[in-house]
Records
---
Amino acid sequence: MGTKILKSAATPSEFPKVGDWVAFTQYNSESEAVIHSVLPRKTTLSRKGVDPRPGVSSSVEQIIATNIDIICIVQSADQNFNIRRLERYLAMALAANCQPLVILNKIDLNSQWEDLVRKIKSRLTVDIPIIAMSAKDSLGKDELLSYLKQGTTSVFVGSSGVGKSSLINMLQEEDVLKVGEISETLGKGKHTTTHRELLQLSSGGIVIDTPGMRELFMWDADDAVDELFTPIVELSKACKFKNCSHTSEPGCAVIDALENEEIDPDMYEHYLQLKGEQRKFSNKRKKVSPEKERHKRFSKQIRQVVRDKERWY
Ligand SMILES: Nc1nc2c(ncn2[C@@H]2O[C@H](COP(=O)(O)OP(=O)(O)OP(=O)(O)O)[C@@H](O)[C@H]2O)c(=O)[nH]1
Ligand SMILES: [Mg+2]
Ligand SMILES: [Zn+2]
């Protein structure tokens, strides 16, 4: 069915997104519809995107999907597995208040996959289900389906080629989604899925397939990063300075723990990296408040109208 959107939304994030419930009227023998309003969203899964307007370089909230209950974070169990990437997705899920599920796909390609599961469990301090799967050999299907019950909406996220569409096809027991090859030179996917696609499983659950992300910068996830790295946050309570950056200050309990090998150095570095990104993000947002941004855009539109008038009259 075709839809027409009445352009009364003030910001791009107010337009209907995948997962939204909307009020609409059908017309033209039910082949087209007008959307009148978007119902309040239960959850919003976002990332930092680049403003698509020409000449504007600021970052914008890019909504991946809305009203999500479960985020299936898919990683492949082969050499492409990356713990930091997984942590980024987890922070995004926690920031959106959605239930994350870690899916370790392609276990058929790694005979040591159980070690990988242990590694993930020892790194993560939050209790998140990890499901080992193989879309190729139909492994892990019942366990995943036990989460994707009727009444739930879930979204599959992860890099290109990890098998998101293959997993959904496996759940559906038919090839409804296009699946792509892996590049032999890069060992990565070729961005086969190009747009988000929502479908209903025979079990009743709604699933959304998404295109593989090239990079993921989180949107407003500072508290979520703290939640993900609780041991470091707990340690930092004993730092001498309240605003300790845990990099060079005397009396830093985090650095002490690092030197005494009580925390994983990679975890520590990643925590600092993500906190740094979030700090930059909130500083920028403080500078450009949404009202200011709206005002700026409105003034620009007026200037454009004046310019156009001058050109035509
Ligand atoms: N060996 C193996 N290959 C798999 C498995 N799951 C998917 N593949 C293969 O991995 C390739 C990529 O699968 P897709 O399902 O297209 O991956 P995707 O995550 O949807 O990728 P994008 O749509 O590009 O984001 C295909 O060649 C699949 O056949 C698995 O469990 N084991
Ligand atoms: Mg796909
Ligand atoms: Zn410190």
---
Amino acid sequence: MHSPGITVKPLRQMPGGAEFNEVFFENVRVPKRQLVGQLHDGWRIAMTTLTHERASASFGTQVQIQRSLEDMMAVAKHLQRHGRPLSADPVTRQKLAEAAMRVDVMRLNNYRAMTTEVRGRPPGPDASLDKLYWSETNKWMQEMGQEMLGPLSQLDPASPYYPTSVNLQRSFLWSRAETIFSGTSEIQKNIIGERVLGLPRG
Ligand SMILES: Cc1cc2nc3c(=O)[nH]c(=O)nc-3n(C[C@H](O)[C@H](O)[C@H](O)COP(=O)(O)OP(=O)(O)OC[C@H]3O[C@@H](n4cnc5c(N)ncnc54)[C@H](O)[C@@H]3O)c2cc1C
């Protein structure tokens, strides 16, 4: 990264931070001693790296999503709507129950993936199933969090009128990135179709 020709430009994100960058390479020469693996084998190395990223990211993410769901359940208990706690509203209850089931499915999928790795088998294209499932679930769940807060969701989370100490606004905005990074949902579906289900391309 210290070679001449490399420019790093931080990208400002919707939730406020700038956690990753655009990286430009202009006529950059990489010394031979920094070659990873074999010459002309970069595609395989990149694919293997991305597969591991998808597989391992699911473990920690499931715990974060579980915590986020617990936050929403706490919010539903103390937020009042039409004179009663939101947690007494049948539609909200159904959605929270569905979220709890989805998060549990995520946990079990992770155990399956972990068992495979413990048995010495590297993660394969089926890691895309987990990535697709947790990212789409969290996006759906964070939208539900905003629905629960209603118009109050638009307040600055630092405002004394924001109804929860948990910043659900940030989680919602961040969740939009999850179906893009590590490969978009459409790309995961292509991988699942072609490399897991063996469907024809195109
Ligand atoms: C928060 C965040 C963090 C990131 N971190 C990193 C990082 O650390 N390292 C890194 O290298 N990159 C990172 N990225 C970049 C990320 O991997 C890319 O944004 C992502 O792979 C999509 O590529 P793209 O932006 O070029 O979109 P495009 O590939 O141009 O896709 C645009 C749209 O077209 C669809 N599309 C594209 N090709 C197909 C196809 N064949 N079939 C069907 N639909 C298709 C996509 O699904 C998408 O909806 C990050 C992105 C975000 C948002």
